[in-house]
């Protein structure tokens, strides 16, 4: 296929712009339809993955009555004669006679026949070496099944695995978890005008997305190796086709920067046509960042892969990430569609006509208010560096102080949940 034919085909067959919410829904749906395969992994290797089946417990939790205090497991009325001692990890003999007790440690199994546990600090020893005291009315032990019953579903499939979940799984007696593998992503940076080191000069600008986008992708649960970041790719159609084809060989998702319009060196659309891609979304009615796209390809091996075209302006590229890539990744991981929190606007935010406006804001998490930040042009990064997310101002509306609006959050720390 010639360059002219590919370019013309790309321009003729591209679908019309999608509304922002519709675009998110489309991205999630195609991701979920292509959800990544599940694999069973040891607990220590599951952090950051996603449950592919519900987490259940193999026994009651706790599996046997366990003392919640240090003290004395007693039978009947006191004073009690000491007949033994039980520590955590041991199996005590039953208490068969009233007036007897065993010393017991926190977490130890309560012996059969015990009627109460007396706290050590509320007990005393008599002159004839008996234990005396008054047990509290409420039981001082954890009953079997108090936390969960054997076989009970504790967390559903689609739950992100974090350290708390790993600990719970271990307590349930699980040694492995069935999880969906993390998506593999690659980044192709387009643009002959880009410098990869040093300050901007002589009409060339520093590439800000090559170093930043992989970090965003990792925070959203992707595996991105240094070798998966390529560029700047030469501004020719053959170079673009070769770079995208090579990246798709290993990646589930290839992100590109720049080239999403139809200028003289914008080759992404004809590249997608040459590779036989289908558009999921081609431009979105959102400002900034409208010339974003998401395309789907099916390889000869039957595996589905995706290309996300991010605009070249840095803030617009991040908006494309949070708008299209994040819901796509949620679907690929088998997670629920991200639900947006809400906050109250502290200041006015203008609308953008019939486009959704994603306005950078800083959040006051105590008051749950959103404050617009400065330096928010699509080519600027200063405002983004001080923001917590984007306030969503719906089409044909503006945001007024006191309005409750959705907020598209940014992950702030490695490992922090993004959805």
UniProtKB/TrEMBL annotation:
Its EC number is 2.10.1.1. Pathway: Cofactor biosynthesis; molybdopterin biosynthesis. Residues 1-20, 122-141 are annotated as: Disordered. Residues 186-331 form the MoaB/Mog domain. InterPro entries: MoaB/Mog-like_dom_sf, MoaB/Mog_dom, MoeA-like, MoeA_C_domain_IV, MoeA_C_domain_IV_sf, MoeA_linker/N, MoeA_linker/N_sf. One of its GO terms (cellular component) is cytosol. Its cofactor is Mg(2+). It catalyses: adenylyl-molybdopterin + molybdate = Mo-molybdopterin + AMP + H(+). Keywords: Magnesium, Metal-binding, Molybdenum, Molybdenum cofactor biosynthesis, Transferase. One of its GO terms (molecular function) is metal ion binding. The keyword Metal-binding applies. GO terms for biological process: Mo-molybdopterin cofactor biosynthetic process. Catalyzes the insertion of molybdate into adenylated molybdopterin with the concomitant release of AMP. Belongs to the MoeA family. This is Molybdopterin molybdenumtransferase. The lineage of its organism: Bacteria, Bacillati, Actinomycetota, Actinomycetes, Micromonosporales.
């Amino acid at each position: 296929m010639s360059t002219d034919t590919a370019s013309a085909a790309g321009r003729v067959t591209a679908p019309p712009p999608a509304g922002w919410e519709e675009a998110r829904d489309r991205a999630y749906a195609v991701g979920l339809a292509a959800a990544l395969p599940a694999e069973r992994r040891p607990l220590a290797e599951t952090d950051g993955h996603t449950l592919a089946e519900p987490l259940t417990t193999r026994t009651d939790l706790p599996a046997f009555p366990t003392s919640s205090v240090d003290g004395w497991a007693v039978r009947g009325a006191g004073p009690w004669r000491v007949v033994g001692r039980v520590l955590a990890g041991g199996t005590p003999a039953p208490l068969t006679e009233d007036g007897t007790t065993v010393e017991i440690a926190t977490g130890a199994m309560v012996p059969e026949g015990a009627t109460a546990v007396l706290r050590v600090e509320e007990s005393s020893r008599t002159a004839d070496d008996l234990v005396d005291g008054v047990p509290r009315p409420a039981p001082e032990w954890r009953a079997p099944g108090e936390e969960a019953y054997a076989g009970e579903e504790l967390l559903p499939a689609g739950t992100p695995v974090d350290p708390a979940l790993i600990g719970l799984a271990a307590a349930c007696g699980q040694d492995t978890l069935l999880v969906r593998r993390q998506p593999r992503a690659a980044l192709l940076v387009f643009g002959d005008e880009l410098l990869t080191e040093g300050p901007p000069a002589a009409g060339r600008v520093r590439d800000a997305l090559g170093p930043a986008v992989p970090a965003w992708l990792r925070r959203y649960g992707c595996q991105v190796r240094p070798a998966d970041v390529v560029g700047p790719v030469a501004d020719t159609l053959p170079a673009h086709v070769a770079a995208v084809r090579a990246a798709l060989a290993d990646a589930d998702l290839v992100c590109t920067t720049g080239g999403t319009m139809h200028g003289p060196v914008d080759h992404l659309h004809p590249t997608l046509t040459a590779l036989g891609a289908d558009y999921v979304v081609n431009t979105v009615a959102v400002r900034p960042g409208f010339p974003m796209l998401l395309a789907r390809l099916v390889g000869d091996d039957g595996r589905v892969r995706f290309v996300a075209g991010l605009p070249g302006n840095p803030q617009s590229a991040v908006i494309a990430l949070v708008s299209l890539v994040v819901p796509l990744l949620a679907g690929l991981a088998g997670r629920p569609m991200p639900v947006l929190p809400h906050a109250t606007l502290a200041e006015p935010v203008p609308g953008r006509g019939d486009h959704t406006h994603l306005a950078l804001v800083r959040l006051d998490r105590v008051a749950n208010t959103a404050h617009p930040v400065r330096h928010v042009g699509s080519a600027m990064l200063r405002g983004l560096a001080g923001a917590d997310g984007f306030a969503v101002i719906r089409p044909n509306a503006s945001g007024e102080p006191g309005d409750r609006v959705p907020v598209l959050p940014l992950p702030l720390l490695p490992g922090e949940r993004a959805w």
